Amino acid sequence: MLGSVDVLGSIDSSINGAGVVGWLPEDFNPTTFIQELVHNIDDIVVNNKCDSQNYKNNNGEREKIVLGRDMHTVSLEITEPDPDDEVTGEREAYMASVLSKYKKTLTEKTNFHLGYPYNLDFDYDALCQLQHFSINNLGDPFIESNYGVHSRQFEVGVLDWFARLWELEKNHYWGYITNCGTEGNLHGILLGREVLPDGILYASQESHYSVFKAARMYRMDCVKVNTLPSGQIDCHDFKAKLLSNKDKPAIVNVNIGTTVKGAVDDLDLVIKKLEEAGFSHDRFYIHCDGALFGLMLPFVKRAPKVSFKKAIGSVSVSGHKFVGCPMPCGVLITRLEHVNVLSRNVEYLASRDATIMGSRNGHAPLFLWYSLNRKGYRGFRKEVQKCLRNAHYLKDRLVEAGIGAMLNDLSSTVVFERPHDEDFVRKWQLACQGNIAHVVVMPSVTISKLDDFLDELVQNRALWFREGKYQPRCIASDVGINNCLCALHS
């Protein structure tokens, strides 16, 4: 299959050779076991702080991926209570101390968070009264289950709001609140596979990793499409690859904001290229991955529309990103006709099975409903404008300091030269890829926080470059020559 990797088969044969799973030997080393199964990873170095992984990029150069520390070194052991713990209260005091220190750590980490698209500015104290209930929306959100402790009425209210936002009539849509953005992509691509069983999945090389995970999970042929320096899908390459496989239907992932560069694919041009390549509307399915910008784009002036009035099949967004839910969640909206292909009635639930997960977090709809009601369209528009304004401020100050940087139109993701000090990267929780890093400017990111970050970055760069050990990174191949300020291109 195109772009597919058969991992499960090799695991099956390694573990279940005789069809029996026995106890693991005492000297079993899980690291060795995993390295034997994963053939493309080499030179893994393990130390107390982190793992580093070397690989070759598209230019044949060796790069190093720095992985986070092994959490077994800091894990909190669970031990059996002593018989007299209820009398002495020592265990309760110990756990209270651990949680207090953890809260202090969370507060500190929140103050230095810049690299990931999470809005940390929220107040849900009004919902604390509901945390004592086990709320589970198992099954289809539109069909009530026999389990009565649910929040479907809130969930459907949220889904109606998003369906209106993306211009799909109430009696023509279906959707549900997912556990994360990845689940939205998995469901959207699964719908495409069910509607077009022999379809090929097309996705730009800068698509979220969950898109390629879906291809592996569903054993789909997958074609990676080149991208422009901005991170947008290269529609000329897209059309060429469509023509090479025009005998099979196309399932297309369109990015409404790429993970690293925040690039928005041109949905109208993608549809045009499909039509030019001879694909009628019944021979292609488009899933729009709008994890972050799917909710921001509708509130940007002169931005292209993501709308079901166009030839798309599904849209997904994350709820814990721009909205600011305190737990991972998301929203998936599709056409009702598509989900009917996938769904099955389940007597045990007295409902319908049409979702990826069975049990679903019933608290997430409450947080989404509460936030959407408090902010409304006007509140979101105000927050989007603030984010875009602050992103331009950050980008301009980086360039003024001689640091190569890029900011896409319609985006609040500022891409710049990767800092040379991994401690600095970890402190500010920057997301990095190769020679670039990025800051995602969210409603919780203030000008004051950006100033603190910039001042520290400029001071550190002076130290890094003082003795000539380091030079400004060349990011021309990542973001284009015009955005690079290295010695060669400045």
From TrEMBL:
Cofactor(s), by name: pyridoxal 5'-phosphate
Record organism: Stylosanthes scabra
Bilayer-crossing regions: none
Annotated InterPro entries: Group_II_Decarboxylase, PyrdxlP-dep_de-COase, PyrdxlP-dep_Trfase, PyrdxlP-dep_Trfase_major, PyrdxlP-dep_Trfase_small, Pyridoxal-P_BS
Domain of life: Eukaryota
Protein name: COMPASS (Complex proteins associated with Set1p) component
Record flagged with keyword Cell inner membrane: no
Gene name in the database record: SDC1_1
Family under the similarity heading: Belongs to the group II decarboxylase family.
EC number(s) per entry: 4.1.1.22
GO molecular function, one term: histidine decarboxylase activity
Keywords noted in UniProt: Decarboxylase, Lyase, Pyridoxal phosphate
Top-rank EC class of the record's enzyme: lyase
UniProt xrefs under PANTHER family: PTHR46101, SERINE DECARBOXYLASE
Pfam families attached to this UniProt entry: Pyridoxal_deC
